[in-house]
Each structure stands twice: as structure tokens, then as C-alpha cells.
Amino acid sequence: MGRTVKKAGKSKSKKGKGAKKADASSSATAAVASGPAKVWQPGVDALEEGEELQFDPEAYNYLRGFSIGWPCLSLDVVQDQLGLVRSEFPHTLYGVAGTQAEKAPWNYIGVFKLSNINGKKREPIPSSKVDADSDMDSDSSSDEEEEEETNEDTKPILHLKKVAHAGCVNRIRSMTQQPHICATWGDTGHVQVWDFKSFLNSVADSGPVAHKEDDIIHNHVPLKIFNGHKDEGYAIDWSPLVTGRLVSGDCNSCIHLWEPSSSTWDVDTKPFVGHSASVEDLQWSPTEGDVFASCSVDGKICIWDVRTEKKPCMSIKAHNADVNVISWNRLASCMIASGCDDGSFSIRDLRFIKDDGAVVAHFEYHKHPITSVEWSPHEASTLAVSSADHQLTIWDLSLEKDAEEEAEFRAKMKEQANAPEDLPPQLLFVHQGQKDLKELHWHPQIPGMIVSTAADGFNVLMPSNIDTTIAGADKPTLAPLG
Question: Taking Cα atoms as reference points, which of 13, 4, 66, 23 lies closest to residue 460?
Fold first, then answer.
């Protein structure tokens, strides 16, 4: 995406988009370019001394950063009862996240509500301001933006409850059917299932002012603790079809199946074995309740059926390096995406998995490990990807290169921006400003909203060019929080 490159000395008190987010009120600050627009390519172009990137305010319908304290390796969006499909501001977001604290006893799970997400797409900046090059105009713009930044009515409100967790949280997932039930993978080697109903109800009932109890860490007893894994792990997933069914995979190449039983879970102590290295991610089939997929450091993707022997029904050599993450498309169930340690990601059509034609798309845009990949819950051809190169990208596989349309665009834009020649036509959006991105999730009830976590906190973003077609309006009603 296009960004303006601006000398840092031009404004009095601006923070770059990459500035660390300190709390729910922190925000990315817009800057008015003092020179011609330039398409800046991460990993290709270098910033000169004194230069910093500023985000284009027209590129986002909403963009804010917030933090719950320590960095979080994993988060999940908690589905709510505010509406299955919501398009009007202000929005409210519920979520859970697990910390990676400096010392093990300091870790916790953050149960939070972010309300007053009040996006207002700005009008285009008048050309007179864009062309202005004086310090006076720059200072005036700075003052206006600072005034907007301090407007209490536009600030999101964070309500947070902290729940003590033994050790760092490697992965956290909320159950679709009962969102207050969450599972965590800890670096202690334990998988735990929690009931956060009381904490979610508490933040739901909170008023317009954030609570002043950030330092209180509540002790809470998990519903189930499983210590049968021989090593820590990261892979965990709830079934979208069978309420309470769970799989967890570890760094010792083993996968265990959890079956719900009254108020607890029965975990099969005999693991599914088929990978030769660490199991990195797991995904249940969106259409078959007994089928799930796994990916591994061994470069393979395996498809499993819990009704058969504990060996894979299918094993695919997907990449030449570690397969870090996978995502099974819930709107086009034949499609599965995988992200690799070499920075590439691929899309496969499972109907042709035994043929060479199974790979329908392969991208090598990112040059560092892929850390997260997820299909949009509202557009079957759209997916989001995060990478260790500090980029979050959004892709639409339905797009193809149109030479005539591209020529018209270049003729129109040549005086404004010099677009790179080698960007894939499927690349819709590039989001930057977060350091060491770890995980992202689309909001299942707010089309176009993405929540991401990184070493310097969370971002909530809604790109302005992501148009969604509402799908799945006949989804079942979710279980209440209370």
C-alpha cells in the first residue's frame, strides 16, 4: 500500500506508526505529506536517517493500538451476542489473550472488552495542505491531529480482567459454540480449559469508564488440566461442528483428542502419530466433524479422521521448510492455506490433493517466517497473513492481472506515485507499524475487522478497501455468556 515518507523534524510531536502502544487510548497518528507520494516497499526500500513511515489515514476505516501489559504471543476474538453481522460504528470487541511475561509467575490471561470503536473515515486532505511546505502549515496540521488524538469521544475504552496463568501462554482459543470456554497451551507443557463466563460478564457490565484494577491478577481454577503431552506445544483447535471437541498437538510430534463428558473432558492418552517433528498448528474441517488437519516442522500437512486408526489418512509434502500455520477455509471447504518458515504461503485444493494441480496459488512476497494465516469469515477468496518481517498482508485470490486496467491506472497515477512493477495483483493491503507480528484474527461478526498481536501490543484495523459480501447469515445463535 502507498505510504508517505516524511522527515521526522517536520512536525513537533508526532509519533511514528511503529511507536509502542501503551494503552487503549493510544493511536496511530496521521501525518500530511510534504512531498510527492511514494510507494515504499518493505524489505526493498530503506529509510534514510531522520525519516519515518506514517500511515495514510484514507487507507483505514479504523486503526488503533492497545495493550494489556506484557506482550502476547496469542489472542482470540470472543464471539458475542451484539449481532451476528455488524457494519455500523461504534463497535465493541471481546477477546482473550495470553502473556509472555519476563518471569513465569507474572503471566496471566487477559479477558477484555474494547468498546467505543468509533471509526470515522476522513475526507481527502485538501490539495493546498498537501502542497504546503512551510513549518507553519505543518505545525497547524500537527495541532489539529493532536486535538483529534485527545478527543475523549473518539477514544476506545478498554475493560480488562487478568487471570493468573502458570507460565507463558503459547496459544489461546475460545470455543465457537460456548465462547466463554477457552483452552490454553502453556510453555509448562500443560493444556488447560477455562470457564471465563464471570470475567466476560464483568467486563460486559462495565460502564463507560475503564476500571482501575490493571494490577489485580485473579486466581481462577481451570475446568481441566491435561499433562499427558511429553513436551510443550502451540497447536490447538476447537471443533466448529462438535461442541466441546478439541485437539492439541505438541513439539514432540503427538496429537491428543479431547472429547466432552458432562462438565469435563476425556482426553485420549494414546496420541495420533504421523509427523516426524513438532506439530505447529491444527484445524478442524468446517464441514466434517470427525476430520482435522495438522502441519509440522517436517514440512508436511496431514489429514486425520478420528474414527479411524491414529494415523493420517493423507500426508502431503507441503513446503521445503517448517510449516508454521494452516487455515481451513470455512466458506470454501476444499481450500486450505499454509504458511512456511521461509516466508512463503500456499493455497491447496483438497479435491486434487493427490494430483500436481492441488496447489492453486503460491506466494513468496514475505521474506521472513509466516506467523499466522487466516481466511476471511465473510469472503471465500480473501485471507490475511502475518510475518516476522513486521507486515500484515491481505490477499484476494479472485483477482487477476488486467493489463489494460493497469495501464490506465499507471497513466493516471504517474504524477502521484511510482508503483512497483512486481507486486502480485492479489495483494490488497499491507499493514505495518507492529514489531514482530505473532497472530491475527478476523472478527467473525464485524466484516473487515482484524485484530493482531505483536511484541509491542495489539492493533485493531479495518482497511478501507476491503469490501465484504455478507455470508452465513443463517449461522446458529451463540450460547449466552450469562
Answer: 66
